[in-house]
## 1
Amino acid sequence: MKRSAFVAAALLASLGIVAGCSWFPHERRAAWRLRDEESCLGRGLVKFSTYIRPARAIDGPGMCGLEHPLRVTAFSDGQVPLTKPETMDCPMASALQTWIDGIVQPAALARFGQRVTGIHEFGAYSCRPVNNTPGNPYSEHAFGNAIDIAGFKLADGTEVNVLRDWGGPDPQRSAFLREVHGAACGRFRTVLGPGFNALHANHFHFDLGMHGRTTTGYVTFCRPTPPKSLLPPPAPADGLPPAPPLPMEVDAKLAPRISPDAGPRHAFTDAPLPLMGISGDGAAADYRALSLPN
């Protein structure tokens, strides 16, 4: 009898293991994630191209994944490539593009006189907990809703690096990084960087996680707090625009109106000019030179 009871218990246990997914519900992602993905795609906030393409849905393990992932190799129609292809959701791709267009490029032009032509990123989608620490909640990286950015490449090949230049000796590079980091708080809901903790000393972390909403909009978390003032961008060397080319062709048009034998005449009215005591063969030439526009 005892043996029969033992066998029955073992059989039930094995059935429980096999049928576990029907006994215990599969972890589900929050409904707002799919809603945000589909809203972004429906509004056409991201344009598909050679550089941004739809990918196959990612489902698991656990809650990891996204319904409509995008495979991204570059932004700005290929003009700002990433270090490697990244997987992210539509809202993240859209927010990154508006950040590049509205913040990064104007700041680079003002401070360096050239555009950003590349972004060095550590990664976007990754099924892992926050800070890669077991027991922590899922990171926004686990949903393709985050990216880590380590630096920028300028048109002349110059590299602006978060680890080296955030507190480095070049004041314009430092100000550029602090500017694009601080202004990102208006584009993303979480913005972390050097000074927040040791784990973020070498990169910016941007995500669109849900921290709640108030009457004024989504709750955001930005660390370190953006500075109130930054080093101003360098001014042009003399503060003046380049000088226009001299209109040398004017002399050629006016010259035929002056006859060498008629004496000096006004360059525009062609009226005779008095010699004013000047005489000799060089008088007419002298007055012609004086009467022509400078």
## 2
Amino acid sequence: MAPSRSSKARSRDTHHKAEELSAHLPALMVAAERVAATVSQGVHGRRRVGQGETFWQFRRYGYSDSTQLIDWRQSAKSVPIYVRETEWEAAQSVWLWRDGSPSMSFSSSPSLPEKTERADLLLLALASLLIRGGEHVALLGTGMIPSTGRGMLMKLWSMIEAQEKNGKTPDANGAPGGLPGFEALPRYGRVVLIGDFLSPLDDLHRAVSAFANQGVRGHLVQVLDPAEETLPFAGRVRFDGMEGEGDVLIGRVEAMREKYIHRLERHNQGIEALAKSFGWSYAAHHTDHSPEASLMALYLVLSETAGR
């Protein structure tokens, strides 16, 4: 009888096979999976409302609730009718979107990724985390049906890659300024929008309100290059418009730095206030920071709001 292979040898072979498999994956997918794996190690148990078996809470019956959820024993104790909620165990659907407009193709340094690259990484890493949790995801504006599994993650990547090659953004509805177009989503659905959100606040308000008025909860992740917040240039500088705005030649950039920074701060505060007014969350991410911290914060926010 031939001697059995040692566990060490089997482990070594498995490791080699894993390396061979990952070598055929696109670099972006490998990076996204690595970020997701790092974040998942720091995520603990989550309590969320859904179709589980463990009791969570009672709440008043709503018009959109199924009568099967009514707890008649609890309701008999008082006038209001109550439904019984349990901890989240069923799959949830999350629609993801990132801005693919020309303004996102900016990096102030060769050592920093373009905003588009970082947005893609955050989107795919978040999708990986959600799929690991059994949730369904889809790319907003593509007509995709939310699904789960590693095959869906690869589909997301391939669609983003195809859009970039064709020079198209992930929203097919032609919203202005790199914003998502309207799409009818199920009530209580969730969306995550990732972009620089440098569009006029009125345009952003229209885009967000279209989803919020459907009862959809959302999260805005603003991705900025550090130079966009500090304007670290000096002297005579020509700024090229990336979305057809034309060029602007400024004689002394440092003379307008303070005014520029103040205006951007007010704009970003407006974004945060807008999100808050609809019960959405807002977070800023800078391309010179690691993606793990932002991804962890976003994932925890999704976990907290899923059952509201």
## 3
Amino acid sequence: MVSKRIIPCLDIKNGRTVKGVNFVDLQDAGDPVELADRYSKEGADELVFLDITATKEKRKTLVQLVEKVARKVNIPFTVGGGISSVEDVNMLLRAGADKVSINSSAVKNPKLISELANKFGSQCIVLAVDAKLINGQWKVFLVGGRVETDLDLFEWIEEGVRLGAGEILFTSMDHDGTKNGFANETLKKISDLVKVPVIASGGAGTIQHFSDTFVKGKADAALAASVFHYKEIEIKDLKKELYQQGINIRL
């Protein structure tokens, strides 16, 4: 059985790690290079780096910062933000990324998923999906949660996997930063729908929330930010408790 994964997330704005609630009210959370170094040493299974304003500012991901982070980590490293071409991915992989995360660009040009998967392999392509419950239906949002679309969450994820995405990173905007737990019912539905790994994002506040998303949400990995940045939960303690609960986790 494949181990469940714990993934700290570095949301980057102006070269700094930031964290907000429901995608707004961003607060400084520290230096991304120092945090990456810490998480690599503390036993994180992977690291995600999202340049959250790259698409809005119509620019590419901060490659030099990616290089600095990559030099500090010895765990798989996913980078996202402003990626819209094979050249962008080539540049980030050369800078030290192991995987790339695409979001807005994939919705605007779904063929990009297939193009990147064919060039780099599906295992390298993470489809990030930010969604919110609108009048009882999960709708996909773009540009760091700023732009609502008519896309249904489940239909888009199914399409993305069909086109070649090797992993899904689902963030519930309603749960983001609330520390009230992950969107487990929705995560279970996604996990039942596709055969690729699903990463839960949005809502981590306690160790039990991680346990619940693995058991009830059937998530393959759980991503969190502020609880790790501010040391509200230590990764080693989290993993030890999950292991004691019988969850397959790498200690």
